[in-house]
């Protein structure tokens, strides 16, 4: 599948849904993924680990990102790297959209 270049606004590519988390994958390759998420207020992802480094970039709203038990508070324009194999979780303090870039090793 080829990619067609197209200018888009990232935060307009996924819409909020009440009491839900919505995602849209932009790129899905064996070397990594790029996904946009929209979390309704109070929604989140429970603590888990991933075998790959990931970058979270906040497109809209506010969220708490917990990495290895430490809380980080992010708002629009902020980013954080979640290291591979470190337990992490996310919680939307307000409606929250993020771009998640996961880099996989071969």
From TrEMBL:
Domain Cupin type-2: 37-101
SUPFAM superfamilies assigned: RmlC-like cupins
Spans traversing the lipid bilayer: none
Pfam families: Cupin_2 (PF07883)
InterPro entries, alphabetized: Cupin_2 (IPR013096), RmlC-like_jellyroll (IPR014710), RmlC_Cupin_sf (IPR011051)
PANTHER family, sorted: SLR8022 PROTEIN
Protein name per UniProt: Cupin type-2 domain-containing protein
UniProt organism field: Thermococcus paralvinellae
């Amino acid at each position: 599948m080829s990619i067609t270049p197209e200018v888009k606004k990232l935060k307009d590519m996924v819409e909020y849904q009440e009491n839900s988390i919505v995602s849209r994958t932009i790129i899905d390759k064996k070397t990594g993924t790029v996904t946009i998420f929209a979390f309704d207020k109070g929604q989140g992802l429970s603590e888990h680990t991933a075998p790959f480094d990931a970058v979270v970039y906040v497109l809209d709203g506010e969220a708490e990102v917990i990495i290895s038990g430490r809380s980080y508070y992010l708002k629009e324009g902020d980013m954080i790297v979640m290291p591979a194999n470190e337990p992490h979780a996310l919680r939307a303090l307000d409606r929250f959209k993020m771009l998640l870039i996961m880099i996989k090793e071969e």
